[in-house]
Design goal:
Blueprint lengths: L1 E3 L7 E6 L4 E4 L4 E10 L10 E5 L5 E13 L4 E7 L5 E13 L4 E6 L6 E12 L13 E6 L1 E7 L2 E3 L11 E4 L2 E6 L2 E3 L2
């Protein structure tokens, strides 16, 4: 497990400007904790804050943990896990005690290449707000938390508010193309 975190007291800040804050491609096995990721603004940045993506086919990876992280100021998602590779997956993912706000496209977005292809996802105490969305792309934007294509997921004690004011079909907290996903003890308002 590769650990990315703050050394010493306080919380480190990664000011990534117009770029991604963290780009993890074709692999997993990462733990990210106690960091602020800051882009140069939702209308100036054109990237994701934290982006784990699998673009290769037949690539199955496991373990991605995000804890005590704040992600803001990105032109796409604050946190995105996207599997485009055919028959690929990212499994055993947890995002906890994390805030994603003031990003353009979505707060948290998780998608696979087909329904039920991602296994064992937990989002616990995640807050997503002021992720406004845009109608200028051909996709759903402006959601606080969007979990798709998951087999076995939990969205627990999460809060989504003030998302989607400019979005395309936005929802505060939702799941689609998934199996056995529980959304419990959450708040979603003004989305």
């Amino acid at each position: 497990l590769v650990t990315i975190g703050t050394y010493g007291s306080g919380r480190a800040t990664i000011n990534s400007g117009s770029k991604r804050g963290l780009d993890i491609a074709q692999t997993a096995g990462f733990s990210v904790s106690n960091i602020n990721f800051v882009g140069n603004g939702m209308n100036s940045n054109s990237a994701e804050g934290i982006d784990l993506h699998i673009d290769f086919s037949n690539k199955n990876v496991s373990t991605f943990k995000v804890n005590n992280v704040n992600v803001s100021g990105y032109g796409h998602e604050g946190i995105r896990i996207m599997v485009d590779g055919s028959n690929s997956s990212v499994n055993n993912v947890s995002i906890t005690n994390t805030v994603t706000h003031d990003n353009l496209w979505n707060g948290v977005k998780i998608t696979g290449d087909k329904n039920y292809s991602l296994n064992n996802y937990t989002l616990d105490h995640v807050t997503a707000y002021n992720n406004y969305g845009t109608k200028s792309v051909h996709d759903v934007t402006g959601s606080g938390i969007f979990m798709a294509d998951v087999n076995g997921g939990l969205i627990n004690r999460c809060i989504a508010y003030n998302n989607g004011k400019d979005g395309a079909a936005p929802v505060g907290i939702w799941s689609s193309g998934s199996n056995r996903v529980t959304i419990q003890f959450c708040e979603s308002y003004n989305n």
